[in-house]
Amino acid sequence: MRLFILAAMLLSTTTLSFAKENLMSTPTTKVKLTTSLGTITVQLNAEKAPLSTANFLTYVNEGFYNDTIFHRVIPGFMAQGGGFDTSFSQKTTHAAIKNEANNGLLNKRGTLAMARTNVPDSATSQFFINYKDNDFLNYTSPTVSGWGYAVFAEVIDGMDVVDAMAKQPTGNKGGHQDVPKTDIVIEKAEVIE
Amino acid sequence: MNKDILFISDLHLGLDKPEITKYFLNFLKNRARDAEAVYILGDLFDAWIGDDDRTPPNQTIRDHLKALTDHGVSVFLQLGNRDFLIGTLFCNETGVKILSDYHVIELNGIRTLLTHGDLLCTDDIAYQQFRIRARSQNWQKQVLSKPLWLRLIAARWYRLRSHFHKRNKSATIMDVNHETVVNVMKEHHCLRLIHGHTHRPKKHYLTIDNQKAERIVLSDWRKNYAEVLCWSDNTFKIETL
């Protein structure tokens, strides 16, 4: 009997942890971003960017991205969002994560990468979508100068929405440049599979 | 509110200029402590003959740099044409991080290229040739394997020679080459460049592919004058010490 309970406990914990991992990320996890301009679906790459995808999913699952805006859009370069709410104040984030830019994924058109400050390991919630192959953002060496920007996902549907974002007029706001004059809002971010 | 980011270059610290050392130590103890980061864009020292050289004022400067990084301020350093032999030992002891010859930072979302400036002076072919040689591993290994006293004497001789060489060079050769500046900025996708080296502090405006661009040249430090470029509240201002 005792053995049975032990076995049952072991089994249940393993199933539980397995289920939890499933919820966190599988190699095929997709996230749907419903924006004010349309829907963008991104495919995460948990295999190559485990930390960044887990981090992104944490924010998605807690509803952090809901009602945040793309606050920096530069045509021919990238669109950045996931940090400011609709009243243009910066949201409080979790701790910064390790830079995974050395994972072999490149900053190609349609990829998502973690935004950060001038410190390589400083990414929190903000990410950007590349409009073109931005080779100069790729990892070159493990130095302050050579750490690039960690790619962790790719747009698989709705790139036309991302392109439409680049057509919106931008200006200066709250000390920031290239801010869309009309808010481009992420109304909802959710895991779809 | 974000803290300030400070930029300095061309201090040319050495035993013969105690006034500048005093300015710098004072800067490290006071002004720099309130900053988020300090970027030193080359030629911090007038000569560097190896991390094992602890003759004055080197050790005092190391100690003060260490105190600053321990305080939580990031200090970044680019190698200049005078102190390019600074190495890992110096960094480990001070907590200073070395940047590559070209380094891009973002200031409020604007890509800003940092470099010492000697690489931009492409009209000075003789120097550029020397630079290639002096930056090779072989050359550096050969120099650093010599005993310290020999390196100390050699450094004196080089400085003297450089002084006489400079006198014969025209002013244009010693300044940056405009075409090189544009190419380098384009290559790094930057519309703003900050550099030192030329000792010609000024803000220049230029056009790159029909876009407005700027080149900010940092001031060298003198016996009676020290200047810091400060990025604060999303704008640049110059502070004198």
Structure write-up:
The complex is a heterodimer of chains A (193) and B (241). Chain A contains three helices and ten strands, in the order H-E-E-H-E-E-E-E-E-H-E-E-E. With 193 residues, chain A is of the alpha+beta class. Chain A has a single domain (27-191), classed as Cyclophilin. In chain A, the strands form two sheets. An eight-stranded antiparallel β-barrel of chain A has the order 1-2-7-5-6-4-3-10. In chain A, strand 8 and strand 9 (176-180) form a beta hairpin. The relative contact order of chain A is 0.23. Chain B contains seven helices and eleven strands. Chain B has helices at residues 18-29, 58-70, 88-94, 125-134, 137-144, 148-167, 178-187; strands at residues 4-8, 35-41, 74-78, 97-98, 103-107, 110-115, 192-195, 202-208, 211-217, 227-232, 235-240. A six-stranded mixed beta sheet of chain B has the order 4-3-2-1-10-11, covered by helices on one side. Chain B has a five-stranded mixed beta sheet with strand order 5-6-7-9-8, with helices on one face. In chain B, helix 2 links the parallel strand 2 and strand 3 (74-78).
